[in-house]
Amino acid sequence: MALISLSKVSFGYNDNNLLNAVSIAFNDNERVAIIGDNGSGKTTLLKLLVGDLSPNSGTVNKAASVYMLNQINASDSKSGGEQQMFALMRAFESNADILLLDEPTNNLDHDAKQTFFNRLNVYPNGIVIVSHDRELLGQMDKIIELHNGQLKVYGGNYDFYLEQKRIESDSMYAKYTNAQKSIARLNNTMNIAQNTRQHHEFKQQKEINTSRRSRLEANALRGKSIETEAKKRVIIQKKLDEQISIQQSLSEQMRNETIKIPVPNKPFYSKELINISNMSFAYGDKTVFKDFDFTMYGKSRVRLMGKNGSGKSTLLKIIYGELKPESGIVKIFGKIAYINQDLSVLDKNKNIVENIMEVSGCLRHDAHAIAANFGFRGDVSQQKVGILSGGELLKATLAAILGGDNQPDLLILDEPTNNLEIKSIGILEDSLNQYTGAILLVSHDEMFVRNIKTDKEILL
Predict the structure, then answer these.
(1) Sheet with 16-27: strands ordered across
(2) Are residues 94 and 67 in contact, defined by beta-carbon separation less than 8 angstroms?
(3) Which phi and psi (to 5°) does residue 357 adopt?
(4) Which homologous superfamily is 2-156 in?
(5) What average pLDDT does the segment 425-447 reach?
(6) Fewest beta carbons less than 10 Å away: which of 21, 117, 253, 255?
(7) Does domain 272-459 correspond to CATH entry 3.40.190.10?
(8) Per 3-state DSSP, what percentage of the chain is helix, strand, and coil (rounded to 5)?
(9) Domain residues of the chain, as ranges?
């Protein structure tokens, strides 16, 4: 039974239209995920469902009790995880007819996520989530994709969604290929028509010159021939324009978001990268590490694990040099780069090319080439980093760190998939699988960890 329905709902901020006359129903006992690029309007849609926002046009009909859990953002990971679990338990205890959960697994460690999944599986009523967590998406009954103000429903979980997208992609490629063939055929037809007209004109002029036909008669025939050929060309050109339009539209939809990481002209450091011995660190009266030892070698991929507050992010900051231990020895060898949770590596007041030059140490013309390889061409490469979306900021960061020859021997990643849409996570995975240096990682995204093929886990 439909508990909440949208009928021809439109909504936008100023000139930014997020929803364009969409209609959809959300039912009881159904687990639904809303996915889409950052900024596409997913959270806005939840706020329309709960009633925090009113549509610019259309109607929202509610015949259910609704409970909404907004995103929780906390600078301290431990308190963030605790706040998230407390808020999730309150949501389940509300026993609302429909729960609306915005990024519910953010800040949760492995054990907390399993607790959440267990409660989710036994919740008797409807649930609508916004999430980029592919493990969670795999437990959904339905996926709704929000793109360019429209909703498209896929009647299955995330694996079903991926299979349908693959089928759509294959179909789109086939249509693109057919359009290319039609354009080539129509261009050839146009050329043949042009050559035929020129041949007729030459033949008519020759007949005039040899007095086989009067000039008046020849001109009449020529005019009729020109008129016929012109009509044919108009018809052919119309078909050609239609196919070119189809090709351009499909080309934009098929735009490849993958990027290519260059092979550096120097070997990566293959010996000992990190050597920590007898290291101690505390925040005030709270001891995080005491006589801690840790060693990591080049080209390995290590995942740090542990409960929220166990010191994972703290250890990364000590290794990178952002924090100093109270005692012990921390030795670092080779070049290190650090991508933190908020992607704050780049200078937001500088443009993409300037940031690539600064981080990679390359010249301007090389920075332009790197930017182009990562999809930033022409005027786009001159955009200030501060205005980029999350996905574009990720690509710019990867371009600056991995796009040149002077790549780091060790790449440190702290929850890199947090707040990234699924498409950007795929780009990140593809980039890291092309990169052949060492990786030290903190992540609660199990699918991401598997996809980048970590070879060792350290429990803190």
Answers:
(1) 16-27, 2-13, 57-62
(2) yes
(3) -60, -45
(4) P-loop containing nucleotide triphosphate hydrolases (3.40.50.300)
(5) 90
(6) 255
(7) no
(8) 45, 25, 30
(9) 2-156, 168-253, 272-459
Token pair, residue 75, equals: 């600078």
316-374 pLDDT, tens digit per residue, is 999 999 999 999 999 999 889 998 877 888 999 999 999 999 998 889 999 998 888 88
Q: Is the pLDDT of residue 1 over 80?
A: no
Closest CA to 38 of 154, 167, 189, 147: 147
Compute how many other C-beta atoms are within 10 angstroms of the C-beta atom of residue 301.
Answer: 18
- 3-class secondary structure per residue, the chain: CEEEEEEEEEEEECCEEEEEEEEEEEECCCEEEEECCCCCCHHHHHHHHHCCCCCCEEEEEECCCEEEECCCCCCCHHHHHHHHHHHHHHHHHHCCCEEEEECCCCCCCHHHHHHHHHHHHHCCCEEEEECCCHHHHCCCCEEEEEECCEEEEECCCHHHHHHHHHHHHHHHHHHHHHHHHHHHHHHHHHHHHHHHHHHHHHHHHHHHHCCCCCHHHHHHHHHHHHHHHHHHHHHHHHHHHHHHHHHHHHHHHCCCCCCCCCCCCCCCCCCEEEEEEEEEEEECCEEEEEEEEEEEECCCEEEEECCCCCCHHHHHHHHHCCCCCCEEEEEECCCEEEECCCCCCCCCCCEHHHHHHHHHCCCHHHHHHHHHHCCCCHHHHHCEHHHCCHHHHHHHHHHHHHCCCCCCCEEEEECCCCCCCHHHHHHHHHHHHHCCCEEEEECCCHHHHHHCCCCEEEEC
Smallest CA-to-CA distance from 420 within 429, 408, 432, 410 is with 429
Task: State the Cα–Cα distance between residues 13 and 5, nearest whole angstrom.
Answer: 22
Token duo for residue 274: 């990190």
Domains 2-156 and 272-459 share a fold: yes
Instruction: Say how far residue 223 (Cα) sits from the centre of its chain.
Output: 58
Is the pTM for the entire model greater than 0.90? Answer: no
Sheet containing strand 126-130, edge to edge, reads 66-69, 98-102, 126-130, 31-35, 142-147, 150-154
Does residue 201 carry a pLDDT above 90?
Answer: no
